[in-house]
Amino acid sequence: MQQFFSNLESFLKHYLNFDWESFLTACLSAGIKLIVFVITATIIKSILISISNHSFRNYLSRKTSTFNRSKTLMKLVENCIQYLYYFVLIYGILSLLGLPVSSLLAGAGIAGIAIGLGAQGFLTDVMNGFFILLEHQFDVGDTLTIDTYVGTVTNVGLRSTQLTGFDGTIYYIPNRQILVVGNSSQGHMRATVDIFVYNDTPIKKMELIINDVTEANKSQLPNIYKGPIFNGLSSLPSGQLYYRVTLFVDAGLQVDVQSKLLTLYLEAMAEEGIDLPNTPVSSIPTPR
Predict the structure, then answer these.
(1) Residue 146 domain flag
(2) Which CATH number characterizes residue 23's domain?
(3) Per-residue pLDDT, 48
(4) Can you tell me the distance from the alpha carbon of 241 to that of 196, in angstroms, rounded to the nearest whole number?
(5) CATH number of the domain bearing residue 167
(6) Which secondary-structure segment (H or E) carries 188?
(7) What is the CATH number of the domain that holds 256?
(8) Domain containing 173: what range?
(9) Distance between CA atoms of 53 and 65, rounded to whole angstroms?
(10) Confidence class of residue 284 from pLDDT cuts 50, 70 and 90?
(11) Angle, CA 27 vertex, CA 89 and CA 20 arms, to 5°
């Protein structure tokens, strides 16, 4: 019991003799420095992102790059600025708190081999992401097929790629898992227009009308790269005949071009008195 009271007396003496004023002043000073540092770093990050976005918008306005490509690079630069911001923020906070950052980094070097073994996947992601961007395999806004995932690219980073499916599902795919990519938004895609016909439909006259309609509407459909190409007659399993026309258009616009041209072709043929089945989008033959 005597020992307890002796220890209590020593603690009280130390507590009462402690320089609380200097301690509180040091805490307040460190707190102010931390707040100023965080605010300054955040402002600098926002300025850098704003400058980057403005530069890419100017770059795009000169039409030296596609919109999707500029958007991809803009996202990448923004991610790099974010990573740099967090690194500087953590480093600065540790330094202001008086922690030996250099010693911590040196200590981290000792464990570098063990950490490196666990970071192989991360480094592979970064290397694959670098080559994806360098080789221009895809951009933000492109429609991709990656393994079993199909969707639109919403973000491209050095570590992962974000894909949004047509049902709204968001997929986060590590870049090291992107081995084979099907890009439906590069180059030219095929648009097929199928027109239901009867056995005695005048095919030659149809082809002349299709050519004339396509030429007359090229100003409204400037995305047609090649065509029309006449693939000839074919039939459904039900026996219904149809005539297939193929055109090559800018990637991503094939459905829109197909729908518009089908409407124009049918209207022109009706005006020329060509009798056709009533439902060209149906696989069920229409009785004549």
Answers:
(1) yes
(2) 1.10.287
(3) 81
(4) 6
(5) 2.30.30.60
(6) strand 188-196
(7) 3.30.70.100
(8) 120-183
(9) 15
(10) very low
(11) 165
pTM above 0.70, yes or no: no
What total of structural domains would you count in the chain? 3
For 100-120, the pLDDT digits (tens) are 666 655 555 545 554 555 556
Q: What is the rounded CA–CA span in Å between residue 83 and residue 243?
A: 56
Clarify whether residues 60 and 96 are in a common domain: yes
For 33, 107, 205, 220, 231, the CA distances from 263, given in Å and listed in that order, are: 69, 71, 17, 14, 19
**pLDDT greater than 50 at residue 89:** yes
Percent of the chain at pLDDT above 70? 72
CB 223, CB 280: distance < 8 Å: no
Q: Are residues 157 and 213 in the same domain?
A: no
- Return the residue matching tokens 């955040």: 42
Distance CA 152, CA 133 (A): 16
User: Is the bond preceding residue 280 a cis peptide, omega within 30 degrees?
Assistant: no
